[in-house]
Write a structure and sequence with these properties.
By secondary structure, this protein is mainly α. It folds into two domains: 36 residues, no CATH class; 45 residues, no CATH class. Helix content is 63%, strand content 0%. It contains four helices and no strands. The chain starts with a helix and ends with a helix.
Length: 83
């Protein structure tokens, strides 16, 4: 979902390299921070937040992949409201 948004010019995002390699090679996406530090030394709070967001995003992605845009939107709203 984020990948498609970025391809449409929807902003800046952080995605796995293997997912966007072709887009970088063809120029559809541009790497903005090539020297951005890896996540080797994250604080516990930051690591917890990343883990939380990944877990919540997985549920939204499952709804979106199943073809139910309405379910994905409801899931996203539910996640946002529960914080």
């Amino acid at each position: 979902m984020l990948h498609q948004l970025l391809l449409m010019g929807g902003g800046i995002g952080y995605l796995l390299l293997w997912l966007i390699e072709d887009d970088l090679a063809t120029g559809r996406l541009v790497r903005l921070l090539p020297a951005y530090p890896e996540r080797r030394h994250l604080s516990a709070k930051v690591r917890s937040m990343i883990d939380f967001l990944v877990e919540k995003a997985a549920g939204i992605a499952v709804c979106a992949q199943s073809g139910s845009a309405e379910a994905a939107q409801k899931r996203a709203i539910s996640v946002a409201s529960k914080g």
